[in-house]
Amino acid sequence: MRPAAIMAALMLASLPARAQDKPPERVTVTGTRDHKVIQDFVKTFAAPTRVSGKITRWGQGICPQTVGLNPAAVKFVNDRLRAVARQIDAPVDDHSDCAVNIEIVFTTTPQAMIDNVRKDKPDLLGYADNTEKLDALAAVTRPIQAWYMTQTRDLRGNVLTDVAHRNGPGVEIPCGPTPCYLPDAAIFKTSDSRLGDGLRSEFQHVIVAADPTKLTDCAMGQVADYIALVALAQVATPDACQPIASIANLLASGCDSNPDGLSDNDLAYLSGLYHMHATYDWRLQQNEIVSRIETRTTGQ
């Protein structure tokens, strides 16, 4: 049964039995031996941050809060996110009074919500060093969309939120196709290792907005798994149609596949993300994730 579950949940109706009783069925993936295909898959998912030049993941325990659905649906989405996090060894805060760091909002007016965030707390939308980039960040363009506030941590544990309006001299560091700008760089303790500089990138806060009017063809399990993906990893190009099975294809245009939930590829990517060396150069981080996907999907 694949009902228009989201609108029903928003209107305080009951969830379909499949979503209440068990997690969504996962796609059975035939492992591919094409190294380049997997490389391309990882590159469309993982990209270095503008500040530290590393791939971002959670360093502190996740504490999700979902609003806009009935209580049963809220519990399902939160529980599913925590379950996926545990499966891939991402940190989870299980305290009942944990500080919320993932806000999941089901709303029929996502742009109005994000406009308010931009007005009151623009840093929650992510790093932007000019008005044009902030305009692009604040535009709602997808049925489910995420915004990431990140932070940089050094070898001593010093942490700075990644924002563009710090005081201090700052310094440019190599981090991919273009240099990254590290504000207040003088406070950071770095390493001279050829493998990495000792800095790591972490999520500080994530907002996920879901528009139920644009998800009527999706089952609740699919939506929960898609949210889990974008809440635990910053997908670099979420509109790209993936050449291998992925829940990301659920909302990407032009994709033939209709995934039931997180695929083995998605779980292997997330697992690689949370097992990679956090301080390594981003190219080495990508290679680590590619290797984990190949091992998991091919058995080699």
Topology:
Layout: H1 5-10, H2 17-21, H3 35-45, E1 57-58, E2 64-67, H4 71-87, E3 102-106, H5 110-120, H6 131-137, E4 144-153, E5 159-161, E6 171-173, E7 180-182, E8 200-210, H7 220-232, H8 264-275, H9 282-298
Parallel strand pairs: 1-8, 2-3, 3-8
Antiparallel strand pairs: 4-5, 4-8, 6-7
Can you tell me about this structure?
It is a single chain. The chain is 33% helix and 14% strand. With 300 residues, the protein is of the alpha/beta class. The chain has one domain (5-298). The strands form two sheets. Strands 1, 2, 3, 4, 5 and 8 form a six-stranded mixed beta sheet that branches. Strands 6-7 form a two-stranded antiparallel ribbon. It is globular and about 50 Å long. Mean pLDDT is 82; it is low at 1-5, 11-32 and 167-171.
- Along the chain, the helix and strand elements come as HHHEEHEHHEEEEEHHH
Rg is 19 Å
- The parts where pLDDT drops under 50 for at least 5 residues are 1-5, 11-32, 167-171
Fraction of residues in helix: 25-40%
Please report which band the strand proportion falls in: under 5%, 5-15%, 15-25%, 25-35%, 35-45% or over 45%: 5-15%
Specify the number of helices.
Answer: 9
Structural class: alpha/beta
Largest sheet descriptor: 6 strands, mixed
Q: What is the end-to-end distance?
A: 37 Å
Number of strands: 8
Number of domains: 1
Mean pLDDT: 82
Shape: globular
